[in-house]
Specification:
With 837 residues, this protein is an all-alpha fold. It folds into 5 domains: 172 residues; 161 residues, no CATH class; 167 residues, no CATH class; 80 residues, no CATH class; 178 residues, no CATH class. The protein contains 41 helices and no strands. Its main location: cytoplasm. One of its GO terms (biological process) is protein export from nucleus. It is found in: Cytoplasm; Nucleus.
Length: 837
């Protein structure tokens, strides 16, 4: 057992530092060292593991299969073509033997690992290579039978089924590209896999309802993942898939209609048919979404038309009953279908002469895209009317509306705006017509997010024909104007209900956020700004930017002071209650400071403390956050470091004026961010460090020259702090240099920019660090490493002018290549902490 674990760990070792994501392990390639090549060329190595699987106790065999999964994933470049074909042949023979003796696969762990092994056959080898294996016809038959049996046992190991479907998805996707003369036989077996999936899901409905089992449809993520895979499998031999779906759909739809018309029908029978139709609608949407334009024919488009007609007819039936009853899962399936239909058949790139549109015209009288769009909008309004209190349906319905609104100035969006139903929404977006816009004290505040989506979509649709029509804009904003006045009236009295006021305000802000997101053109945004500020139009000398920043500053200061009064917050709630709001404040301040619409010098000139208040609030909020949290929460770290980048670039005098402990906190956060896994954070830290180092170098250069203008108090104090704590800058120099030399540096250019300044500020320390790195190498490599450092500084002057920086960046690229060549087969490094002692 210990030997197996050791072998497994060796095969799982990250030989080149790629750190593969476990969630996508079916794409993994094992980068076996070339020195191991002989072991993999020896067929007895592979045979040993297959023999072990069949001979050791079932409790150990999953580990054997896991080793085989890794062996099957060795990099292709380890073999030449003939060797790879021989290796694959032995691998397929071993798989065939397991399939012929499947007794041990009744163990869930064995079953799971074997499914992973099957998936690797296609993720690491091409279909053209597989069909050339001698036993391919028999093996593909056995795999198909195994897959069909697995799918029929739908209640067993759904996570393992993912790998089987992944195998067939990849096989089906390869069919158009295979050039081998040997038959792949997928036209025989993919329809069997498709049929097994569809029929097993339909048959599961009655059992789940009868026995009260967990419904797979409740796990929408898993269902969507499987449907994405089925969309490709089902498109292989599409005629058979379509014929099967039409047959099953017609049977269930007819039975469903008869049950609805029967006075004696039991609720269980109706629920069974609704469940079956839910699966069928999901699957029809998936196979339509699997259409590939260059590989589709008129006949396949006509088949899509048959399926679409049936779903739309079912929708008409279910919508007519919504006043009495509805099925949430079936409605979600309908929305999934509409989303796939939209992606494939709605838009300017779609040929409207498609046979799908002809079939829609013949059966449903939908003669063109405008009429089809009216069906979409009709469904959206119906859902918002009857399902306004059901958050999953409301949010997905609004997402569909949002997706339809994207695409201006394309013709399809213009067609959409001209529909009477869309005009109705633009003129009647009130809680009277759309219940989700009302105040529901029973719902979560997070459910109000859908209001932002709604108003983003409406805003886009309004902009299509808005132009500079202020009257039309004012008409559109009437419901929000009324909401503003209601909030003002509510807060003017002391008798308002706190929860109702909170929900009203949150809803209004979410609505405005959606509109602001949509109004991204100057004319429309100015209309929104003027509406919010209740001011007349300004001319070229408009103070709007300053006014907007003052309000932003008030908001940040008020919210920040409130957050700082929070006591101890439980760790599991700290992000929701504290850090999320702080992150948003940081993002707001960053947007305001970098938006180029405010002359910040005006504030100090006229004694306005709006800028100072916002910056001081930022510092207070920052100091309330532990260092570890800055990097533990990705959204917080991105908003913080992007704000800090702006501050160090444009407001370095403010940074220099801070108290020593604040400056050390900021520098420590930059030092830790340099080693962050998030490239965006790391790059931001490099930029911050570059700005700080450049500022330091300039101030230090000025202090050593005879000038009539002395250093400012802030600059002088900042220099003094840095001179008292040289270890911080030295630590960052060591970190950057170690990353460039010893790690997979993905942002080398960004790293190079602060490095020159760090070296010039710490020349003696850099010399010691260089000697330490050289001495850490084997004796025979020390001279080469010393030469690399000499070449790094060749031609570099003692300044930070752009020309000098660019030359250093070029030198650094050559330095890194030379160091990598010098250090091949060497594992020596330098511990930066040793240099700090």
């Amino acid at each position: 057992m210990q030997l197996l674990k050791l072998t497994h760990n060796c095969l799982n070792f990250d030989f080149i530092g790629t750190s593969t994501d476990e969630s996508s392990d079916d794409l993994c390639t094992v980068q076996i060292p070339t020195s191991w090549r002989s072991a993999f060329l020896d067929s007895s190595t592979l045979q040993l593991f297959f023999d072990l699987y069949h001979s050791i106790p079932p409790s150990f065999s999953p580990l054997v299969l896991s080793c085989l999964v890794q062996i099957a994933s060795v990099r292709r470049s380890l073999f030449n073509n003939a060797e790879r074909a021989k290796f694959l042949s032995h691998l397929v023979d071993g798989v065939k033997r397991i399939l012929e003796n499947p007794q041990s696969l009744s163990d869930p762990n064995n079953y799971h690992e074997f499914c992973r092994l099957l998936a690797r056959l296609k993720s690491n080898y091409q279909l053209g290579e597989l069909v050339k294996v001698e036993n391919y016809p028999e093996v593909i038959r056995l795999i198909a039978n195994f897959t069909v049996t697995s799918l029929q046992h739908w209640e067993f190991a759904p996570n393992s089924v993912h790998y089987l479907l992944s195998l067939w998805q990849r096989l089906a996707a390869s069919v158009p590209y295979v050039k081998a003369t040997e038959p792949h036989m997928l036209e025989t077996y993919t329809p069997e896999v498709t049929k097994a999936y569809i029929t097993s899901r339909l048959e599961s409905v009655h059992i789940i309802l009868r026995d009260g089992l967990e419904d797979p449809l409740d796990d929408t993520g898993l269902v969507q993942q499987q449907l994405d895979q089925l969309s490709t499998i089902g498109r292989c031999e599409y005629e058979k898939t379509c014929a099967l779906l039409v047959q099953l759909f017609d049977q269930s739809a007819q039975t469903f209609q008869e049950l609805l018309q029967s006075a004696t029908a039991s609720p269980m029978d109706i629920a069974v048919q609704e469940g079956r139709l839910t699966w069928l609608v999901y699957i029809i949407g998936a196979v339509i979404g699997g259409r590939v334009s260059f590989a589709s024919t008129d006949e396949q488009d006509a088949m899509d038309g048959e399926l679409v007609c049936r779903v739309l007819q079912l929708m008409n039936l279910t919508d007519s009953r919504l006043a009495q009853a509805g099925n949430e899962k079936l409605e979600l399936a309908m929305l999934s279908f509409f989303e796939q239909f939209r992606k494939i058949y709605i838009g300017d790139q779609v040929q409207k002469s498609s046979k799908l549109y002809r079939r829609l015209s013949e059966v449903l009288g939908l003669n063109d895209e405008t009429m089809v769009l009216s069906v979409f909008i009709g469904k959206i309004i119906t859902n918002l009317k009857y399902w306004g209190r059901c958050e999953p349906i409301t949010s997905k319905t609004l997402q569909l509306l949002n997706d339809l609104s994207i695409g201006y100035p394309f013709l399809s969006v213009r067609k959409l705006v001209k529909l009477s139903a869309v005009q109705f929404m633009l003129n009647n977006h009130t809680s009277e017509h759309f219940s989700f816009l009302g105040i529901n004290n029973q719902s979560n505040l997070t459910d109000m997010r859908c209001r932002t989506t709604f108003y983003t979509a409406l805003g886009r649709l309004l902009m299509v024909d808005l132009g500079e029509d202020e009257d039309q804009y004012e008409q559109f904003m009437l419901p929000l104007t009324a909401a503003f006045e209601a909030v003002a009236q509510m807060f003017s009295t002391n008798t308002f209900n706190e929860q109702e006021a909170k929900r009203t305000l949150v809803g209004l802000v979410r609505d405005l956020r959606g509109i602001a997101f949509a109004f991204n053109a100057k004319t429309s945004f100015m209309m929104l700004f003027e509406w919010m500020s209740q001011r007349l139009q300004f001319d070229v000398s408009s103070p709007n930017g300053i006014l907007l920043f003052r309000e932003t500053s008030k908001m940040i200061t008020t919210y920040g002071n409130r957050i700082l009064t929070l006591g101890e917050v439980p760790k599991d709630q700290v992000y929701a209650l504290k850090l999320k709001g702080i992150s948003i404040c940081f993002s707001m301040l960053k947007a305001a400071l970098s938006g180029s619409y405010v002359n910040f010098g005006v504030f100090r000139l006229y004694g306005d403390d709006a800028l100072d208040n916002a910056l001081q609030t930022f510092i207070k909020l920052l100091l309330s956050i532990p260092h570890s949290d800055l990097l533990d929460y990705p959204k917080l770290s991105q908003s913080y470091y992007s704000l800090l980048e702006v501050l160090t670039q444009d407001h370095m005098n403010f940074i220099a004026s801070l108290e020593p402990h604040v400056i050390m906190y900021i520098l420590s956060s930059i030092s830790e961010g340099l080693t962050a896994l998030d490239t965006m954070v790391c790059t931001g830290c490099c930029s911050c460090l570059d700005h700080i180092v450049t500022y330091l170098f300039k101030q230090l250069s000025r202090s050593t020259k005879k000038r009539t203008t002395p250093l400012t108090q802030e600059s002088d104090r900042f220099l003094h702090i840095m001179q008292q704590h040289p270890e911080m800058i030295q630590q960052m120099l060591s970190t950057v240099l170690n990353i460039i030399i010893f790690e997979d540096c993905r942002n080398q250019w960004s790293m190079s920019r602060p490095l020159l300044g760090l070296i010039l500020l710490n020349e003696k320390y850099f010399s010691d660090l260089r000697n330490s790195i050289v001495n850490s190498q084997p004796p025979e490599k020390q001279q080469a490493m010393h030469l690399c450092f000499e070449n790094l500084m060749e031609g570099i002057e003692r300044n930070l002018l752009t020309k000098n920086r660019d030359r250093f960046t070029q030198n650094l690229s050559a330095f890194r290549r030379e160091v990598n060549d010098s250090m091949k087969n060497s594992t020596y490094g330098v511990n930066s902490n040793d240099m700090m002692s």
